[in-house]
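protien #1 (seq + structre)
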Amino acid sequence: MDKEYLSKEKYEELGRELDYLRRQKRKEVAERLESARSLGDLSENAEYHSARDEQAETEARIEQLKDLLKRAEIIKHVNKDSAEVGSTVTLQKKGEKDKVEYTIVGSEESDLSAGKISYQSPLGAAILGKKKKDEFSFETPKGVVEYVVVDIK
């Protein structure tokens, strides 16, 4: 059972989602099922089949969230000397002036458009353990890319 690194905020957000699914969504789906059953013949009842599908999806998401939250490890301490999960790292491609900033997160929180990369991604894995001014490279579909670590927060 692998750990899933989560920020405190993401952990709480997933907990709220689980609570909503258990307390409210289950009831809504059960009511839809009951209403669809009352329409008669279930073999050709599209509303019933739709509600059953939604029930299965809801239960699957509940199980997924329970498992995820059970395996979760909250990111607490951020080491500013070397990059780790929870660090925000500023990088510069060798030979270029532009800099990019990424926060290293667990896979559940990764969102490249928000500057959050998974520690399991090729770039995230390459950054882990690096210190300021370290140079590193990693393989991309377009070839090898070389970076310098400018800052770690």
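ok now protien #2
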Amino acid sequence: MTTCQASHRYNMMFATLPEDQSYPFRHKCAGCAYELGFEAGVLNQEPEAAIAIDSILESQAARVRHRSPRVAYYQGYTDGLNEYYIRNPRG
């Protein structure tokens, strides 16, 4: 599997996420998971964390090292859904 090289690896936001090294989350990039969750939320889609996490790259770099991609996905989803409602106040 390819390793994530995106700059989100250094975002301090991910340092606050809980650690998770359990299967299938071990070494999955929390930054990529957050971005996929945000995208789903801002498009007002139903969350599909399991499918998204299966598709993301691995990373052991910087702030995303051992951080929970599942929590990152749902945090991104929540942030994206909030953004959706800001852009579409009547839903």
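The two ends are 38 Å apart (CA to CA).
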